[in-house]
Design a protein that fits this description.
Shape: globular
Strand content: 5-15%
Largest sheet: 8 strands, mixed
Organism: Hypoxylon rubiginosum
Bound molecules: 2-acetamido-2-deoxy-beta-D-glucopyranose
Radius of gyration: 22 Å
CATH architecture: 3-Layer(aba) Sandwich
Protein name: Acid phosphatase
Order of helices and strands: EEHEHHHHEHEHHHHHHHEHHEEEEHH
Number of strands: 10
CATH superfamily: Phosphoglycerate mutase-like
Number of domains: 1
Length: about 450
């Protein structure tokens, strides 16, 4: 059931940063960037440097922003938390002696939960809403976003935390505002039905052999980068008898223990590995996204088509045309899919965002050559396709429209985590922008339904 969430929020308790926090609204996660920006989708949001100036050009006025956000930092998923716990138990049961650097593990107790946002993750979203209000004050001072969220707990809660940050900035700018929390958020069910903020419908993608493409590519890379690390762990933790898969699980304890701390203090697990090893770990996560949901998977970008068709509708003010994952009942009703708003804010997951980037055509082969399963490619060499740059916890994409000078037509631009990602296939200018019409024309993959037909063969 779709319903309007009505939850009472305590505004008074908002803090944008604590004094010793590793995280702040403007820059995101700033502690130990030489490690912490290489944790793939388990990195906390950080502002990615933009080669193209990300500010709004002086001669332009923003007319529209669609924001799409990932939920904030969470505990491991239920199955992963069981695996990590078992890994720690195994170490405690079988390791006969701990070398000095590893001695803390002897007394380490596994206490992480499952699936829910951490306190740090909630704060990330408060910060994101605050930052959004300020970046887009031209629009936010007189327009409220239309909110939608996929209905899993951590996503809905993220949306609510975002509204807290937005409301705080709004009140700071206008003490007399008549806007108050809670904001209405339209929830899209994950358990059944059509949902453009959560993949699930395309059976060939969900159940078919395309799922193996991700695992196979990751397994090859694992066999390249992990053996030396595994050998070192087995030397320092005699008796652990790790295989390479255990090494990745063990490395995961670093980001997860870091975001389990309210201020994001870097976990002692992180220091057991070099910056170069973290880059290899990050590349392992990047391969998972590229071959699982991105351009490396034959049906990955198709999962993002429904959302892109909704975006086209919003950006052009025309009704949604889509035969994939949109819900026609919702999208043909002005109450659940208005077309006259200037600001839209949607909340989803990392995998869905990767599919949407693919459906937007942001990383074609000319920009991101098919990622090698044996040689690490840097984020810069991959045209920005790096899971930490694209879908960290609290990731956000902004799709902006702007009216510049006396131009006859508005321009479109996309930023992912503050980095301008130049538009492809529509004759982008030096600022990465295209005219609205050319941009919509360039989205023919999405507007023609992607490869949705192949979902049900
Ligand atoms: C870890 O596993 C042990 C043994 O099965 C169990 O007693 C404990 O509750 C688990 N801890 C967590 C945090 O899941
Ligand atoms: C985030 O939102 C949830 C759900 O509304 C709320 O319980 C929690 O207190 C919020 N977090 C913070 C830090 O305000
Ligand atoms: C808030 O005030 C504006 C005009 O200042 C008005 O248009 C709007 O309806 C008011 N909203 C509420 C919720 O009272
Ligand atoms: C579409 O949305 C309507 C209204 O919320 C809901 O009743 C219906 O079950 C949804 N249909 C699908 C296929 O998701
Ligand atoms: C690994 O990469 C090679 C070269 O691109 C490719 O031919 C092969 O299919 C890939 N293997 C897997 C399992 O991804
Ligand atoms: C839901 O999606 C399916 C598959 O694309 C489509 O056939 C159906 O018409 C959609 N339902 C609604 C209510 O839009």
């Amino acid at each position: 059931m779709v319903f309007l969430a009505s939850v009472w929020l305590v505004v008074a308790s908002i803090h944008l940063v604590t004094a010793d926090s590793c995280d702040n609204a403007e820059d995101g996660y700033t502690c130990s960037p030489e490690f912490s920006h290489s944790w793939g989708q388990y990195s906390g949001f950080f502002s990615v440097p933009s080669e193209i100036d990300a500010s709004v050009p002086a001669e332009c006025e923003l007319t529209f922003v669609q924001m799409l956000s990932r939920h904030g930092a969470r505990d491991p998923t239920a199955s992963k938390t069981a695996t990590y716990n078992a890994t720690v138990q195994r170490i405690h049961d079988s390791v006969t002696a701990y070398s000095e650097e590893y001695a803390f593990i002897k007394d380490y107790e596994y206490t992480l939960g499952a699936d829910q946002l951490t306190t740090f993750g909630q704060q990330e979203l408060i910060n994101a809403g605050y930052k959004f209000y300020q970046r887009y004050e031209q629009l936010t001072s007189s327009n409220m976003p239309f909110f939608r969220s996929s209905d899993q707990d951590r996503v809905v809660e993220s949306a609510q935390n975002w509204t807290q940050g937005f409301q705080q900035a709004l009140q700071e700018a206008n003490a007399d505002t008549n806007v108050s929390l809670p904001y209405a958020i339209l929830l899209l069910p994950e358990e059944s039905g059509n949902n453009t903020l959560n993949h699930d419908l395309c059976t060939a993608f969900e159940d078919g052999p395309v799922g193996d493409i991700k695992g196979n590519a990751q397994a090859i890379w694992l066999s390249v980068f992990a053996p030396d690390i595994t050998a070192r762990l087995n030397e320092n933790l005699p008796g652990a008898n790790f295989a390479d898969e255990d090494t990745v699980n063990f490395m995961d304890l670093c980001p997860y223990n870091t975001v389990a701390d309210a201020s994001g203090t870097v976990s002692p697990f992180c220091g057991l590995f070099t910056a170069d090893e973290w880059l290899s770990y990050g590349y392992y996560q990047t391969l998972g996204k590229y071959y699982g949901y991105g351009p490396g998977n034959p049906l990955g970008p198709t999962q993002g088509v429904g959302f892109v068709n909704e975006l086209v509708a919003r950006a052009t003010g025309r009704a949604v045309v889509d035969g994939t994952s949109t819900n026609a009942t919702l999208d043909s009703d002005g109450a659940t899919f208005p077309l006259d708003r200037k600001l839209y804010a949607d909340f989803s997951h990392d995998n869905d965002m990767v599919g949407i980037y693919g459906a937007l055509g942001l990383f074609p082969a000319e920009v991101t050559a098919p990622l090698s399963n044996t040689t690490r490619t840097s984020a810069a060499d991959a045209g920005g396709f790096d899971s930490a740059w694209l879908v960290p916890f609290a990731a956000r994409m902004y799709v902006e429209k702007m009216q510049c000078g006396t131009d006859a037509e508005e321009k479109v631009r996309i930023l992912v985590n503050d980095r301008v990602v130049p538009l492809q296939g529509c004759g982008a200018d030096e600022l990465g922008r295209c005219g609205l019409g050319d941009w919509v024309d360039s989205l023919s993959f999405a507007t023609s339904g992607g490869l949705w037909d192949e979902c049900f063969v």
